[in-house]
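P.,

For your records, the input lines for the assembly:
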Amino acid sequence: MSDFGNKAIAGYIREYYKAAVAIAPDHLEQREFGFGSFASRIAVRHTAFKSDRELRAYLVDTAPLHVDYSAAYYKDPEAPMDKKGWLGSELRFDIDAGDIVKLPCRIEHGKEWACEKCLQAAKEEVVRLIENFLVPDFGFSARELEINFSGNRGYHVHVRKESVLSLDKRAREEISNYIFGNDPDYDAFFYTVRVDPRHEKQMGPKPKEGGWRGKVATAFLNAASSKEDLTSLGIDKVTASWIFRNIAKVREQVAEGNWDFVRIPNRESVFENLLSRQVINQGNRIDKGVTNDPSHLMRLPNSIHGGTGLIAKKVPSLAALEIFDPMKGAIAFKTGELKVKADSRYRLSMNGREFGPYKNEELELPAYAATYLYLKGLADIINSK
Ligand SMILES: [Zn+2]
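Structure tokens returned:
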């Protein structure tokens, strides 16, 4: 980082905001804004704007490195926290490749870098969040969801349905606990019924049921079509072979909730494995602050991410997400070249081209690649005159 480099970045950010279309979010006047600089991720907050024009003028004037806005709508967004007059908050989810547990490529490149595989893995979690939870279990329609690339290595999903706005912190916690499968209660899934004075029957979830019950039963039956999948759930080989041989009968009985027929000795740990395969892979963090805190600030869609120089780009639909390549579609600084001194062990793929690795080399790079490496601390932008 250098004064010269920082000024170059600010210049690009300013030009981006001069030309950007539709930067203001809905309910603009009721949102709190925060801004980050090289010195501090959120250096200014409790700011508000009356119009798109006013917001844009501020962005062009100050060229902030980060722009955040509140999930909440307030009567007076500029007032101190307890005097803002809370009117409601969107529900938001933050999916970050850095929080995906056991991502093999991370062992190679470390937590600070995001490669194509990281970005793809984050995208898959977003699809699961929407298709396995938000739509079927909560009944949100695709139209009520907004998907945004985070600008770095993940995605933000916003739910703007009227009915979520008034949810308090506790209700938000319940939603995140449900989605992230925290504290699952085994006894609520499996129970015994007495069929006669001498016999009890083990009952459990049916695949046709809604919510987690249906997910667990379906995941088990999916695994039951392969002996390897069964043993990978922690089922011993003898039991796995038996299930596999009797698959038709197992399906028929589990469909009725009769798990007594499937005698899995260590059902509780198998259940935990089934559950952990279905949850959204975000470790323990899953940025609970984002989902649970109604006053959280989050990156403004279509603003610049100051850690990469990419656009935190709005993705218009789930179908568009399938083909969205952030290292192409979220490039902000498309024109010009910058002279850099680069020292990076990574191979950067951007705009269909590859950059690096570099060993303390001076070279000219397209502005988007130069700023990306600079903001990641892997290159210095140097004066070419
Ligand atoms: Zn990776």
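Two observations worth noting. The chain has 16 helices and 17 strands. The chain has three domains: 3-180+282-328, 186-278, 337-381.

Regards
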